[in-house]
Amino acid sequence: MTNILEVNDLQVSFSSYGGEVQAVRGVNFSLKKGETLAIVGESGCGKSVTSQTIMQLIPSPPGRIKDGSILYKGMDLTRLKDEDMRKIRGAEISMIFQDPMTALNPTLTIGDQIMEGIKQHKQISKAEARSKAIEMLQLVGIPNPEMRLKQYPHQFSGGMRQRIVIAMALICEPEILIADEPTTALDVTIQAQILDLFREIQQQRDVSIILITHDLGVVAQVADRVAVMYAGKIVEMGNRRDIFYSPQHPYTKGLLNSVPRLDQEGELVPIDGTPPDLFSPPEGCSFSARCPYAMEVCKRVYPLESNLNAHHLVNCWLQDERAKRVLHTI
Amino acid sequence: MGLRQETFYEKKEKIALDEWFVPIEKKQGEAEAVVRPSLSYWQEAWRNLWKNKLAMIALFFLTLLIIMSIIGPIISPHSISEQKLINQNQPPSSEYWFGTDSLGRDVFARTWYGARISLFVGVTAAVIDFLIGVAYGGLSGYKGGKVDHIMMRIVEVLYGLPYLLIVILMSVVMGPGLASIIIALSITGWVGMARIVRGQVLQIKNYEFILASKTFGAKSYRIIRKNLLPNTMGPIIVQMTLTVPSAIFAEAFLSFLGLGIQAPLTSWGVMADEGLSAILTGHWWRLFFPTLFISLTMFAFNVLGDGLQDALDPKLRGGK
Amino acid sequence: MKSYYVKRFFSMLVTLWVIITITFFLMHFTPGSPFNDERTTNEAIQKNLEEQYHLDKPLIVQYGMYLKQIATFDFGISIKKSSQTVNEMIGRGFPVSFELGMVALIVAVISGITLGVVASLKHNGVIDYLAMTIAVIGISIPNFVLATMLIQQFAVHWKILPTATWSSWRHMILPTIALATSPTAIIARLTRTSMLEVLTQDYIKTAKAKGLSSFKIIVKHALRNALLPVVTLLGALAASILTGTFVIEKIFAIPGMGKYFVDSINNRDYPVIMGTTIFYSTILIFMLFLVDLAYGILDPRIKLQKKEG
After folding, report:
1. The complex's ipTM?
2. Preferred mutation among C16, C30, C140 to probe B, highest tally of B CBs within 10 A
3. Which of A250, A253, B112, B220 shows the smallest number of beta carbons within 10 Å?
């Protein structure tokens, strides 16, 4: 299986009145064709910025790609000219955002908004665009699509709007779909429906999906692989099995512990403290201030990468031989 | 590249020493340290305003204007009404700093006297708008329900009335003069303020700390005073600051039409009217000074109002 | 939707009635009679004239008669110039004022929106800052001040444009600039603020993510939403342009309705004052109503709400 997308040492910063905020500090991952990669983390960990950088949607002042590359089909997206990137957006890589209530233009019909995507990228007639739009609406499960095309966003519920947004994103049959917190603004039953829809679409259309979320429940349902992000870096990455059944990084473990489970009794254990200040990130491991297993070395030097197997890697000093000596004293 | 890259290589060479593999002493609360010092609402607002150079200049200008309006006629060697017909229509000179008008009066002294009148009209109108508007809007918003509904219907009808037309009519009825201008401005001007205040009150009424206050048995009056007012002050202050220039404009407008201030008083509007015919005869200073000051004063108040709005509205903060 | 507009229409009539009533009673409470000047020294003549104009009847009766008159669009006869009916005066002056006002409004809308959009796109840049400073200046300089400045420079000093009257297109330039500057500035500021807010909306992000061209995003998506508040403003703006015509006509000696209005105020010519006031107010209120209608058409949320509501 080939990698359809490769992100190498991506570093993105923002200049603000308080200084430079290092939002993404060296992120590496790849996406294979047909798989779903979930990027998990708290608010502010850099997952949204990473995904928006892939689409080159970060406004250039104040944001800036300091280093790194994003390879798509051999092209480095960070070096593309604007017009070329625009041809890719919506046609080959699509993105959907968190809040379906505000993602659609209230003054245009949804038919107009869906069709403009394909009209922009492909030379097709209005009738063809229309039938494609109807096909998409059917795909995402909206009944009576011919009539609905003429309606306005406020005439649809939140769940339906999100489906419309997905239809809009898929109309040009992109290779990659990036979904930034697609279910966060929806209630749980609708959430399940949308996630089912993602699975269906992936099976039918062979789309590769990057799913950004902070909700491990969502991850468990749809992800093939998971990348855990903290303070601008990926701290652990692996298969769904690896992450859920043998998490290595204390942060990952913390996340899993803080999810309420029906089969376990007892209190919820939140992770102490708050994420570090990205104006001046610490030299060592950024989680050390909150980590119950932190050692001297964690504060001073950033942990090297350890590969537990072909797919599972983690950045943590606890993996080091010398740490294992200490561990049983804790 | 540069610094970032070097640090990275440094780290690579930075060896993880064996002795560091020991658990660390954790200081309590280290992880929870808040990064930036927090300021009170007003402190932060003042800081934001301070950063707005234009607004600060405007504030400085207005302070200067107020001072000059008080001391201007006093420091001038000539009185405001002294007529020396031989000196009529003199251009600015060392004796008459702003020149003289057709009756030989000192334009400099009269300009500052006009400042007093214009500022007085502007500020009074703003204050009365505030008093009536806050009372009306505050009551309407706080009471809610039917009372609010009726009061707002009335406001709607009043809002549709052409402001300046009413002012003109009022001036006609009450005869021109300072009092009638102020009354006329007040009768129509409060409507905008009432709407804003009502909107603010409605927003705040449901905030939780009001409910909390109520559960402690605080009386309505106290709630209004201690809780509602401090939070609604922002837009109210902005509205007042922006009312002043429109009142000054209305006065100048009326006086220019002959409906405003009458002799022996004078205002910038009156002086502008008198100065209008003078431009054809080349006596530019008679029109220049009053119109300059009308414009500068309105400009300063508008800029200040804008600056206050930016400073007091949290949504717009962090934009730069 | 219909019921909403019917309601608005009635509200309009109520406001109009309030104005007529206020105007009427204000006029009749004004001290002094229109007949107390040099022309009518004889008491008997004065009494005759008062009778002729029904000024001797009780106020309520006069009011009733006037209302009836208004309903038939008869504004009466001028007191000072008894050879003219108020309707005639309006008929002569209004087209001129209307032309002046409309031209100014159109100029203001086009330049204001353009300026506002450009400023918003170059946000925080030199152009933005410059445009907005000019805008504040535009709002701060009263139109009559600007008019006098323009005359001073262009007509007197450089002698390139005429000073007065309304006879050729060249005569239109200065008055239009004087009248349109302030509204242009207001529209520019509002458009800019509105655009800035719209540009941060999610649906703009969505449009970008679809790979649409900048032009399409700005015109089709952003502007359509950003202009809604501007439309709402148009009513108030029309009002200020209208009152602006009074002074502009005075300064440039343009034979519009404003001139009659101001003169009649100074002469206490009741029928003219009332007639023109009511006429102006009707126009204004009608414009506010039109703006409301337009907004309802442009914003689908309102359109359909009313249909279903």
Report:
1. 0.84
2. C140
3. B220
